[in-house]
Amino acid sequence: MIVTKELAKQYLIKRAAWFIETAPDGDYMMAYRSVNWLEGMELFEDQDECLRELDKRRTARMESGHCPKCNYRHATETEKDLSYLTLIGEPKGSKIYQCPKCRSGWFTKAGWKIWYGYDEAMLDYVTEWGNRNMQPDASQRKVLNEIGNISSDRKLQLFPAHVVLRDGTEIPSAMIHLQDEPPPPDWFEKSTWHYFDLVKEIRPSEIAYKKQIAKDIMNAMQNGKFKIIYVKDQETQKIYSFESHAGVFFPEELKGKELSLEKAGADINEHLNYYMPHERGGSPFWGLTPPPKTISIRGDKI
What we know:
- This protein is α+β, with helices and mostly antiparallel strands and about 300 residues long.
- Helices cover about 25% and strands about 20% of the residues.
- Helix 1 (about 5-20) packs antiparallel against helix 2 (about 30-40), helix 1 (about 5-20) packs parallel to helix 3 (about 45-65) and helix 2 (about 30-40) packs antiparallel against helix 3 (about 45-65).
- The chain starts with a helix and ends with a strand.
């Protein structure tokens, strides 16, 4: 089939409308962002045409029983009227509210201006999160401090590690997420993560870059930047480069090498042509052995 401009246009209208029809909280702003992206692709000479279509679908959704007050995933305190919500829980110093009309849930904490919306079906998961103690113990904190936090976000701590679960499962490429909020709604649809209270042992990963390199990589990833990372093999003095989106776990060919972060723009001996890891939908590694799939471990912030 030949993909014409008109076919692409119709497909992308449906894609933008999907965010309204299937998102648990009617993520209308995501649909608008899709339209802006489409306009950038020059598929819509008349952007209003697509917005009119989205408005029709949004109206139909509201008339079918969806609560218009809960139509946004994020809302500031000044925009959200708390009087119509019912407080249903206060786990770990947070507050969970529920809308009596659409039954959607809202999570927030004191001083926050952001509210996280959850479909009613997910509230049991949020409650479960609130009832679990996922603070690292003293011995675990010692290892985590040795590894070092590589996150540039003050609300989130990230530690690449080798983890052993209580059932004996070993995860050599685990990314430990520690933060004071439940997993976002889309996490509950994933299978490649575990709660921290299932962890038996933590140790430094043999296939994770050192903290300085990993932090540089993660900073680029968290800020959505495309960046070339330069590293030097201390034994051979060779300098390698690779794209930051390849992640903080390296190919087997680099295992055992003493690598240090090199300044940007340095003369290189070889560019490592490996692209986005397979679990994120990207191309496979070119000519290199890919590291194991990254598994996330979700716990409470230290």
